[in-house]
Amino acid sequence: MNEEELSRIQAIAEAALLAAGKPLPLEQLRELFAEDERPARQVMEHAMMLLGNACEGRGFELRKVASGYRLQIREEFAPWVSRLFEEKPQRYSRALLETLALIAYRQPITRGEIEDIRGVAVSSNIIRTLLEREWVRVVGHRDVPGRPAMYATTRQFLDYFSLSGLGQLPPLSEIRDLEEIGREVEKNMQAEIEFDSAQAKPAGDNPPDQTFH
User: Fold this and answer.
1) Where are the bilayer-spanning segments (predicted)?
2) Could you give the C-alpha distances from 64 to 33, 116, 151, in angstroms and in order?
3) Which of 19, 94, 146, 149 is the most buried (most CB within 10 A)?
């Protein structure tokens, strides 16, 4: 495949990602092409690498997350871009952040197990918010009396925080005290949450509302 054909594949992929406003998997990008001109998987991967290189020095970047590839504003430009929007991001409680951290690091985990670790009850509103945002889901039920639901993070959680897998979470050899968990997760995720509020508006009609406190 010559350079001109690769450039065309790269341009088509770029246009599709800009139009989609959400991550697109490699196979879906390949299916944009008619069967007789569909690039091989290896060729498509090479085109995506070239697209990523072409974004260097620009205000946006190509990022590979759990659901595929997406074009997004570079994090360092979020303070300026966020000024385009009057709405202020909704702020979530530290209790929600701690609950999300425990699910991320100890999944699958039940509400009762979260409460045992935190030492306080988990509000139904926290679980509902995490489920509504599709950051966590029920993956089964613990085989104990009452069969409590077990929670785990979702692909949307990984996409939201620009992660391709759970292995990219900040390493924790074990769950330590909750203040330390909160600080470590907040340090690694706060920038992504605030940054996402700057780019969420162009991709859809919903106002940005993604900041913990």
Assistant:
1) none
2) 21, 36, 25
3) 149
pTM for this prediction: 0.59
User: And the tokens for 51?
Assistant: 């697209």
* 92, β-bridge pairs: 212
Q: What is the SS3 assignment for 23?
A: coil
Using CA atoms, how far apart are residues 180 and 110, in angstroms rounded to an integer? 21
**50 with 34: CB under 8 angstroms?**
no
Cα 8 off chain centre by: 29
Residues 44-58: tens digit of each pLDDT: 999 999 999 999 989
Helix-strand-coil split of the chain, %, nearest 5: 55, 15, 30
Q: HSE of 171 in the Cβ direction (CA atoms, 13 Å)?
A: 1
State the residue for tokens 């990219």.
Answer: 168
User: Side-chain half-sphere of 15: how many Cα atoms within 13 Å?
Assistant: 8
